[in-house]
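User: tokens in, sequence out, please.
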């Protein structure tokens, strides 16, 4: 049986209404992702938080600056997966210069269920990463969002030729 992991990408405060770069449909995405995490927990599926931090050597960024409230993972997400591993990244691809591969290998993961913020950027770049090719990868399309609905739909359509799009109920 394939060992699965749910990658929860960039569920950080800056993307929510009081943050520095609020996205579209965050309430629904948050609710859906919390439900996906609860289902993963019930099935003993690893939940891995991916947290984006601006690279300090590039100067102050518009958001996700280290030490800020906005860079922190949303408290409702941490409440449903408080003991999950946190992988810190500085690029859209969650594998790029991170320990994600090591975390997945240590847990014997073979299948990735990907969800999170910025459908057209961090979600898709992680899903189609060269490093992800060794895994069975799916995107939970009901657990993603971005700046607006049109960009979200365009990104999902574009990536659908390479990565299966599923709903939480189909895979969890």
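Assistant: Sequence out:
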């Amino acid at each position: 049986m394939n060992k699965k992991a749910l990658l929860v990408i960039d569920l950080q405060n800056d993307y929510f209404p009081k943050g520095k770069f609020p996205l579209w449909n965050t309430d629904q995405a948050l609710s859906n992702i919390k439900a996906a995490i609860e289902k993963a927990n019930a099935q003993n599926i690893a939940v891995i938080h991916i947290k984006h931090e601006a690279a300090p050597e590039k100067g102050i960024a518009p958001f996700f600056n280290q030490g800020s409230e906005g860079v922190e993972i949303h408290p409702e997400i941490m409440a449903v997966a408080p003991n999950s591993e946190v992988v810190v990244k500085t690029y859209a691809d969650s594998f790029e210069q991170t320990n994600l591969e090591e975390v997945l290998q240590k847990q014997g993961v073979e299948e990735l269920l990907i969800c999170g913020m910025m459908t057209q950027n961090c979600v898709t770049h992680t899903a189609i990463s060269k490093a992800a090719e060794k895994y069975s990868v799916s995107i939970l399309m009901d657990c993603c969002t971005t700046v607006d609905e049109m960009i979200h739909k365009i990104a999902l359509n574009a990536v659908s030729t390479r990565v299966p799009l599923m709903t939480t109920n189909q895979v969890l």
